[in-house]
Design goal:
Dna Ligase, domain 1, 13 helices, DNA polymerase, domain 1, about 35% helix, alpha+beta, MutS, DNA mismatch repair protein, domain I, 5-stranded mixed sheet
Length: about 375
């Protein structure tokens, strides 16, 4: 190990097919059937798919037309984001019984730092199992969990025993776990990067580990250092809970990289809706709208516009975002999009500045 592990116990909780599972819970007639939330057989994009639909290759971000072609019996369901938010709040209330260090990634997943926890339980694995049991008993849905010494490994581990399972990667197991991992399973390595790594003879973690920092930076730019570190179990990013900020933001990382501005615009509608809710919750508005773009190679770009008046309305935000999106061509496929509002109307008042949310061990 190149440097000692930080003494953290991190749980990554990921709800199983969240949107689709909520729809099946609320409508028992859909249980056991292939359903797609969002889109239609004629237009639109799938937001989520049930496990029954995933067997046919139906997944988020593909067109409704393609989804129906893959699965002729597919049932399309209109999204109900207010309902998903309602369920998400119940799940996060359970998290807060265990720790205040919670970093939401989206409505259906979050990191929890339980190094020091409210239950005084030294076993992060036991805590994860207890949290999953409570979610099932109190909310009615299943969740999967990954437990390890940092966010990167915990995120990968949560996908191992899905659905309704968990995996713990202990400190002394991290290196071997990553060495044996297929490179396409590394969080942050998208389809395009996977193909590039294959061309360079990198198929597993051990192949990646054999490459020097100079080699990786030469071929992957700034992302090279990230790959060099994470394959050695080095990922020191802390769990970021709510914090005071001079801006309000919302963002989303996609399972599949996006290359079409039309798909991006559709995703930005949902991000803008989340941002609008956060602005209204804090009773603030802003003048500066910023579009955040993170490409598949981990390079990042921001595009901003300052208006002559304060806004907090989703429609007005999207007018500016659409302008910023088409301001120039994308240089690569996109793995993350975000919108933030700054230059807030709190900056000249006595009002508290608003909150921006991101999202020896016994394991």
């Amino acid at each position: 190990m190149d440097q000692p592990f930080p003494e953290r116990k991190i749980i990554h909780i990921d709800m199983d097919a969240f949107y689709a599972s909520v729809e099946q819970m609320d409508n028992p007639e859909l249980i056991g059937k292939p359903i797609a939330v969002g889109g239609s057989e004629n237009r639109g994009v799938v937001a989520a798919a049930s496990y029954e639909a995933r067997k046919f290759g139906v997944r988020s971000a593909i067109s409704g037309v393609q989804a129906k072609r893959n699965c002729p019996d597919l049932i399309f369901v209109r999204p109900r984001f207010e309902r998903y938010k309602e369920i998400s709040k119940k799940i996060h209330a359970i998290f807060k019984d265990y720790t205040d260090l919670i970093e939401p990634l989206s409505l259906d997943e979050a990191y929890l730092d339980v190094t020091q926890n409210k239950k005084g339980n030294p076993s992060a694995s036991n805590l994860a199992e207890e949290i999953r049991t409570r979610i099932f008993n109190e909310v009615g849905l299943t969740a999967s969990a990954g437990i390890s010494i940092n966010k990167f490994v915990a995120k990968i581990a949560s996908d191992y025993n899905k659905p309704n399972g968990q995996k713990t990667v202990k400190p002394d197991e991290v290196e071997v776990f990553l060495e044996n991992l297929a490179i396409k399973k590394f969080y942050g390595v998208g389809k395009v990067t996977t193909e590039k790594m294959y061309q360079l003879g990198i198929f597993t973690g051990v192949d990646l580990k054999s490459k020097s920092l100079e080699f990786l930076e030469k071929h992957f730019g700034k992302a090279g250092a990230f790959y060099y570190n994470v394959v050695r179990g080095i990922h020191n990013s802390p769990v970021k809970s709510d914090r005071i900020s001079k801006s309000v933001a919302a963002e989303h990382t996609f399972e599949t990289n996006l290359s079409s501005e039309i798909f991006m615009l559709e995703q930005l509608q949902g991000i803008a809706a989340t941002l609008e809710n956060r602005l209204k919750k804090n009773a603030v508005s802003g003048k500066t709208v910023t579009l955040k773009i993170k490409y598949s190679d981990f390079s990042q770009q921001t595009r901003s516009k300052t208006l002559p008046y304060f806004i907090a309305d989703k429609g007005l935000i999207m007018e500016t975002i659409e302008e910023l999106l088409y301001q120039e061509r994308m240089k690569d496929s996109v793995r993350l999009l975000g919108i933030s509002m700054s230059n807030l109307n709190t900056e000249t008042s006595e009002k508290k500045e608003v909150v921006a949310v991101q999202l020896k061990f016994k394991f």
